[in-house]
Design brief:
4 helices; about 75% helix; elongated
Length: about 120
């Protein structure tokens, strides 16, 4: 292999490794955020829970489609409209977390896959 081919292969391998490392780092960040969401949800700290859900959204948004964005936007509008009604806010945040977990699963960034998804 000539020097150009060797450099190209090394660069490609380096880019693949970098993408892999970025993916692993993102999965770790998302996992940590879900743990924190659970913590604040159990303590009924709705404001902090919402902030963390927004952080999950920021991790997932780059691979989302328009429907995902509309769903999150709709939930955020519900949140603002009902900000002082804790019971309603709790249900809205449950819905928001469910949407985000589905988005994460659909993107293949964690969660269980159906057997059919793997071709089994």
């Amino acid at each position: 292999m000539n020097n150009y081919g060797k450099r190209y292969t090394e660069q490609t391998n380096s880019e693949n490794l970098s993408e892999f490392n970025d993916a692993i780092a993102q999965l770790q960040r998302i996992g940590n955020l879900w743990e924190q969401c659970h913590y604040f949800r159990r303590r009924a700290n709705l404001q902090q829970w919402n902030v963390l859900l927004d952080s999950v959204w920021l991790e997932l948004i780059q691979d989302c489609d328009d429907d995902d964005e509309k769903n999150i936007s709709g939930v955020n509008k519900e949140y603002l409209k009902n900000k002082l009604k804790r019971d309603i806010i709790y249900q809205i945040l449950i819905k928001k977390e469910s949407i985000l977990r589905k988005i994460q699963k659909d993107q293949g960034k964690g969660g269980k896959k159906k057997k059919d998804d793997d071709g089994l």
